[in-house]
Specification:
Number of strands of chain A: 15
Number of domains of chain B: 2
Strand content of chain B: 5-15%
CATH topology of the largest domain in chain A: Rossmann fold
Radius of gyration of chain B: 18 Å
Shape of chain B: elongated
Strand content of chain A: 25-35%
Largest sheet of chain A: 7 strands, mixed
Shape of chain A: elongated
Radius of gyration of chain A: 22 Å
Number of strands of chain B: 3
Number of domains of chain A: 2
Low-confidence stretches of chain B: none
Distance between the termini of chain A: 25 Å
CATH architecture of the largest domain in chain A: 3-Layer(aba) Sandwich
Number of helices of chain B: 5
Oligomer: heterodimer
Order of helices and strands of chain B: HEHHEEHH
Mean pLDDT of chain B: 90
Structural class of chain A: alpha/beta
CATH class of the largest domain in chain A: Alpha Beta
Mean pLDDT of chain A: 92
Largest interface: A-B, 23 and 16 residues
Helix content of chain A: 25-40%
Chain lengths: 286, 129
Amino acid sequence: MLKVRGLTRRMGENQLETINVDIERGTVHAIIGNNGAGKTTLFEAMSGDYPGKGSVTINGHPVSSVKGKEQFSYIPQTVTELDGFSLRILHKLHKTHDSMWREDRFQTLIKQFNLPMNKQLQIMSIGMKQKSILALQLSRDTPLLMLDEPYTGLDMEGQQILDRLLLQHMDASEEHAIVIATHIADEVQRLADYISILHDGTLSERVEKDELQRRWQRIWIEERVEGINQAPGVVSVSSTRTQEIITEDAEKTKAWLSERGVMIIKSQSLKLHESIPHILKTGVSA
Amino acid sequence: MSLPIEINEERQEPIYHQIEEQIMTLIVSEHLLAETALPSIRALAAQLGCSVITTRRAYQNLEQRGYIKTVRGKGTFVQQIDTKEKSTQKYKTVHDATKRAIHIAKQHEYSESEVKELFLTIIKEEYDA
């Protein structure tokens, strides 16, 4: 549904280099990267707010066109343009001018998040401001949600509510999709189907989340084996009484070990919070 | 609704297979009765921390095997399973679990008579209680 082709954008020290990505309907796609990797630069460009070179279309419509804007809701990481306004004014604006607006949703969200209507956004706490932006954007009935670190500043109750809202969005229609920027492994574990890694301004091919967990494993073996550091897939080896191996390709590593008759004591899949930091260091291998 | 199932990171079989087997066991043991609505593939994926690609595959396999049925726009429901099929599956589940136990005993170099003795002790504990 979202097609990004040859997107290039320079932003301070960040340079995005010919980004290509497809977000498929029915899927949640996480863009992960360390702080400063350029996630926000990418989202600003994808949303059409600060277009770079290249093309971004949603369901065939250019992202900056009126038709395009009806296809998505966007939670930016920082919003300063709205600081001087209260929810009362922003609500009125959407209600009168936004063809995607769903008043019933807004009323529910205002209650759920317990938001004040008359306070200016700039004097709200970070969490409350985030909830206000979420309430405004998630009241729009659009197939795609573009979310740039949407959990930032939310208290635990707010996080739970957002989890539920995202689930509802995906369950509401097979045409719906989410693209979310995050550097928090737990969010990826809870939400994502596909993962792309932003590293040095380039975006990796997407990988299916469960494929990562199939490939990245911890393997314990009984004895020291010659050449284990160079075995296929092996990322690190540490030895105490048993040898503990981290691999990014369990199948290959295990085949290598079995050729040498090495007994595997135990192996287990790595959780994403363990594998992702490794991947962010080196990028994804094919 | 969430299902009482979990993913075991130490099992080497694929995640979709683990989900499939556990749902099947819940159906065969009648913890999930016919017509019960199952969570959506998205809700189940969120519960287990896996992707919808995996949960969809598990549901598709269960549907092919006749355990569940997806009604477009309504959701996924448990199917009526005939009694013969149920007993076959129950037998298979218990058989496989017993086999795994014996396999572990062999890894620890238990002899046949030691395993037999252990099984008899456990049977006594469990059935006399």
